[in-house]
Amino acid sequence: MSYCSYQFSLPLLALLPLVSAHGYVAQVAIDGTDYFGNPPNANPVPSIVRQINNVAPVKGASNPYLNCGQDAQLASLVANANPSSQLQFWWKGGDGSNWPHNIGPIMTYMAQCVNTTCDQYDSTNAEWFKIEQTGLQPGNTVWYQQNIMNGGPANVTLPPTLAPGQYLIRHEIIALHLANEMGGAEFYPSCTQVNIQGDQSSVASASDEVTFPGGYSDNDPGIYDPTIFDTPVQYTFPGPPVVSFAASPSNTSSPTSSNSSSTTTGTPVPSSTASGSGGGVQCQVSTAQAAFSMYARQPRSVSRVMRRWWESLTSLSSIAS
User: Fold this and answer.
1) Phi, psi at residue 280, to the nearest 5°?
2) Residue 293: helix, strand or coil by DSSP?
3) Is the confidence at residue 18, as pLDDT, over 70?
4) Which of 2, 114, 120, 145 has fewest C-beta within 10 Å?
5) Of residues 88 and 271, which shows the higher confidence score?
6) Rg (CA), the chain
């Protein structure tokens, strides 16, 4: 790059919405009870969501942070849930705005916290099984991730016959706006700690389980996709198939199988408290709630901003050279 093109590109780089281009899970609702996550690097309050230290995406399928997110820390609470519990995951941009991406799948995995409670469980070697995957809306041109960008949640139904015990729920967005280049996919995993009650008996087989890293490759069709902007989109989900005992397809708004999708919109109504089952702890979440209540800005398409920036940069670099 010439000196002149460098002079042109630096101011353009400074204008990019770098922080808002990334994000995290700010809130999880379980059967109508709200639990608030901690913003990255904030002084944490008790939560069921493992706190990450950076809103930037995890890059590369072999990245150790693919497990639960950027340097994810153990959360102090474990929330009770039931078979077929309805969960909502509310994603926010790093600057408090709406989630900034709208291209790519939403997937949910679970792993049992083996030989300990989830607030003490090291997920490095966790065996994950997939319970849902949500991709494109009818017509195969708009992703359901667009609903999250519009301010709505991702909806997940827990398997109705899942064996009781303590589990991590790994909820993940893969942003594919740069996936037409090898290594361009952006992974956003988040882990939530739950205790499944009841006397069910379904467990995942070894063939259904994967580790992270290990479950994906950078050249998987659903991760590296040179035709991602071609419409109608033809998309292949990465990772293992959805387990056979996951919730059956329905006409509700909750994504319950590989062919069902989230369609709800709106904004959450925060509750004043949230409780977890870890040691029977009940915690005030006013700090996290106050932080979440500031997140009411309008969504913006970062991919569109990126394309315009790149076109401008390419044009200016050509002139300067």
Assistant:
1) 70, 25
2) helix
3) no
4) 2
5) 88
6) 20
The encoded tokens of residue 67 equal: 């497990």
Q: Which residue type does 263 have?
A: T
Token readout for 262 is: 């989230």
CA-based nearest residue to 75, from 44, 40, 53, 43 = 44
CA dist., res. 312 & res. 320, Å (int):
12
Q: Which of 109, 41, 116 is nearest to 71 (CA)?
A: 41
Cα distance between residue 108 and residue 300, in whole Å: 25
Which residue carries 């009650």 as its tokens? Answer: 197
228-245 residue pLDDT tens: 999 999 999 999 999 999
Residue-wise pLDDT for 249-292, tens only, equals 542 333 333 333 333 323 333 333 333 434 333 333 333 333 33
Pairing of strands 23-30, 86-93: antiparallel
Report d(CA 12, CA 109) in Å as an integer.
Answer: 39
Q: Which residue has the tokens 């909502």?
A: 88
Backbone angles phi, psi at 119, to 5 degrees: -75, -5
